[in-house]
Design a protein that fits this description.
Layout: E1 6-15, E2 18-28, E3 32-34, H1 44-51, E4 59-64, H2 73-76, E5 80-82, H3 95-102, H4 115-124, H5 140-151, E6 158-160, E7 165-167, H6 175-183, E8 197-199
Parallel strand pairs: 5-6
Antiparallel strand pairs: 1-2, 1-4, 3-7, 3-8, 6-7
């Protein structure tokens, strides 16, 4: 049986004497939008950094597609994108050039996104009309949208944003699925206790 996109059991993380996370339980099924939401300092970013393989858990376990993300980050990143901790933007490139360059890093040539896929990602985030403009002319909001477009190339099975973890089926590659994942937020809920789920397009 295929591993679920995200499974967290008894997860904890300490920074010295400070407890950032304790006893987190989370399971994300394919086709769900799951939102851990809470006040500043409640551990949301710490949880996402553990899932991205940027931090090691102090207790419990986290699995992304059945893999421990800290030790198997390269394999995790072949199937997942983490838009909350993106690489820096290249100011001198146009939006189109930026996506064409960064979306190819770490991929075999046969897996490179096509020009039409790049245009589709730009359209999805509302930057199609600015595709030929250089990044240094973009507002903060436009830069955030460009980073989201970057995370969608190639279309991942798991997309993690700061406000919600979004699981996208590979079969759902149309613009509507992208837009539903971007537009539809999860309900505010305590980040350590409960999560609510929404099927994409449901």
């Amino acid at each position: 049986m295929a591993a679920v996109p995200v499974e967290v059991r008894g997860l904890g993380r300490r920074f010295g004497a400070r407890i950032a996370l304790a006893g987190v339980e989370l399971r994300v099924e394919p086709g769900e939008i799951v939102g851990p939401v809470g006040p500043n300092g409640s551990g949301k970013t710490t949880l996402l950094r553990i899932l991205a393989g940027l931090l090691r858990a102090s207790a419990g376990e986290a699995r992304v597609f059945g893999l421990e993300p800290f030790g198997r980050r390269e394999l995790v990143m072949q199937r997942a994108r983490f838009a909350f901790a993106p690489p820096a933007l290249f100011e001198s490139l146009t939006a189109r050039e930026h996506l064409a360059y960064l979306s190819r890093l770490g991929l075999r040539s046969e897996a490179f996104p096509t020009p039409s896929a790049i245009e589709s990602a730009l359209e999805t985030v509302g930057l199609r009309e600015r595709a030929g403009d250089r990044v240094h002319t973009f507002s903060f909001g436009m830069r955030q949208r460009l980073l989201l477009a970057q995370a969608l190339l190639p279309l991942p099975e798991l997309l993690v944003q700061r406000r919600a973890a979004v699981v996208v089926h590979r079969q759902r590659t149309d613009r509507a699925a992208h837009s539903a994942a971007e537009r539809r937020p999860a309900h505010p809920v305590p980040s350590r206790d409960v999560v609510r789920r929404h099927p994409i397009g449901g």
